[in-house]
What does this fold into?
Amino acid sequence: MKRRSVYYIIFAAALVIFFAADLFLGSVDISVKDLFTTYIGKDILINFRLPKAIAALLCGIALGVCGLQMQTLFRNPLADPYILGVSSGAGLGVALYLMGMSWVGVSAEGTVFQSFGIAGSALAGAVLVTLLILYVSKKMEGNLSLLIFGVMIGFIAGALVNLLQYTSNAHALKTYVLWTMGSFAGLTTAQLLILAAIVITGIILSVRNIKDLNAILLGEDYAASLGLDVKKIRVRVLVSTTLLAGGVTAFCGPIGFLGIAVPHIARFIFKDANHRTLVPATILIGATITIFADTISQLPGSGTVIPINTVAALLGIPVILVILWKARKYSN
Amino acid sequence: MAELLKIENLTLGFGEKVIFRNINVSEENGRFVALAGSNGRGKSTLLKTLAGLDSIYNPQSFNNPDSLQRSEKGSILYKGKAIAEYTKKEFSSLVSFVFPSGRRTNNLSVKDMLSIYCYYRTNWIGAPGEDEEKKISKALEQVGLSGFENRNSANLSDGEYQRITIAGALVQDSEIILLDEPTAFLDIANKFMITHLLKEIAHTSGKLIIFSTHDLQLAMDMCDRIWLMTESGFYSGEPETLMNDGTMDKMFNVPGLIFDKNIKSFTYDGGFKNNKRV
It folds into this structure.
């Protein structure tokens, strides 16, 4: 059997184990037997832990594949799903929604509209930023200038959010800050289904990008000399990454670090740059690590939950540091 | 039947600046052609324009009276058709371009790397079929790297890597192969091996191969024809003809630099101090 297949099996097995652990080791201290037999146990399992674990699974799948495509497209090891300002756009959308609501004196707090309002405004912000980037990408020759443009858009959106935060009331501010910390919890069945549909569509599009992403590995100019339309490839990658990153951000907030770290872990373990290997690898590793991070974030048995972004950063930053440390040899 | 490649009155330039004018030449299948010229003369630009990577420079699109008077846009015809008349896919099976050496892809197996070159003939996730795998093996055999399919491209030597990129052009299976300084960073053994290899490919498979080089001696010895980009204009012809009619002497306008037919290379007597012109 090929080494690659062995790794796939190992990660698939790890995914199943971590998924089970995520279900069984919640913040509420309850035995596995009680989870399945008692009324309250079933309620916790089906209405809280299962949707949360599924949300974590979908986000992990989405962020890994999204980060991989960005890193390949921009030939930049520090590119992540949000590098073109998708999360800043989503953040601006949410900030406008939350603080706009507080200005007009309407509150959807505690109702089902609140979470849909946040998700909808986040998605709208992400899509608007991407439409702008897509428009610009048609005019620009090189990916590097597009990258710089995207980062600048992100800064502008960030500055506008700061302005909104400065002028908003404490309550809206807190809701916004909590959103930026990211959470897999509290998704309704309908929201989970929408998220699943978005992620699955994004993954299908990403799989269809495999061939083009491989060609980009040789360099944009080489791909062009092989008869490929580099601008078209860029659009395809942007559409799939927006679905993935935008979907995650809309329903779970801007989850950072996993998008950078997962593709590097995949390359490090599989020692292969071919996207036929890396796309399935990032799906498996992304899902496994995210579920693992989610398990840790609920501090099993403690009764409290820490924000997923904090855990993701603590897991992801060491990986980025190792990459920088290894890259130091090649930087000159 | 129209010529395989016909260039008429082509101008090269950047922005408002015209760097070369009046390129006229045509070539046929099975020829091994060297493109020589001093630095900055526009060799790479010419090759990239031929490969369709740069569009044909149009001096008349700039508001520059100087270029308007003296230069025209010119044309490049492949089998009587302009590049724009081919689809990208058709053109990729007509012309391939090998970029200067020194660029690497990481951690890609040689087979995976070569299967990118037959982009239009692989399946939807880019995996090569049986025919393409055979073509990849054959290309590797031709460049003297049989059995390298599963090697990691990151662990190849510079010479081996350059041969893999040539194998890539063979896998792409175009009628014309353009190479920008394929031997620039290579030692003399690799330089000879790769030039011989290219000549053999041109002569046995009937491909037209055009490569840019600074090694005139090698070009004189090995090539069927030479394109010269000199200060006084564009010249093309067989090496013997160019040597005998004094064209070679016009290549550089440097006092004391003289082309010696016996060694097929330039000699230099430090004559710039005398301010003599050749």
In short: Residues 3-327 of chain A form a domain with the ABC transporter involved in vitamin B12 uptake, BtuC fold (CATH 1.10.3470.10).
